[in-house]
Design goal:
- The protein is mainly α.
- It is about 60% helix and about 0% strand.
- It contains five helices and no strands.
- Helix 1 packs antiparallel against helix 2, helix 2 runs antiparallel to helix 3 and helix 3 runs antiparallel to helix 4.
- It is globular.
């Protein structure tokens, strides 16, 4: 949940041709996912880490022309409903105490 908005923003950015270098955009995305997971004290699983590496590889293939960007985008969309089972950065309901980790999240 902490990274849902990142996946949505990345999808729009790629779709709207807002990434001259897809590999750079995916690198920024994967770093942000890792930061947000740390924010909520969540360790990404090996499967989630593999998914992040796969996204960057698809982006590198698109940048190098080994994979048409349309095909790369479709594969990224397939791989990255990247909505890992993370704790939410949404503040707790009123009456519940906020944890320090959720106070740090953006």
């Amino acid at each position: 949940m902490a990274s849902d908005t990142l996946a949505d923003a990345l999808s729009r950015q790629l779709k709207d041709d807002g990434c001259p270098s897809w590999e750079r955009c995916l690198t920024v995305y994967t770093e942000a996912v890792r930061r947000r997971s740390a924010c909520v004290d969540y360790a990404l699983t090996s499967k989630q880490e593999a998914m992040l590496r796969q996204l960057r590889a698809l982006a590198a293939d698109a940048d190098a022309g080994r994979l048409p960007r349309g095909d790369a985008f479709a594969r990224i969309q397939y791989v990255a409903p990247l909505k890992p089972d993370m704790h939410s950065c949404v503040p707790p309901p009123s009456g519940e105490e906020e944890t320090p980790a959720s106070a740090l999240c953006n």
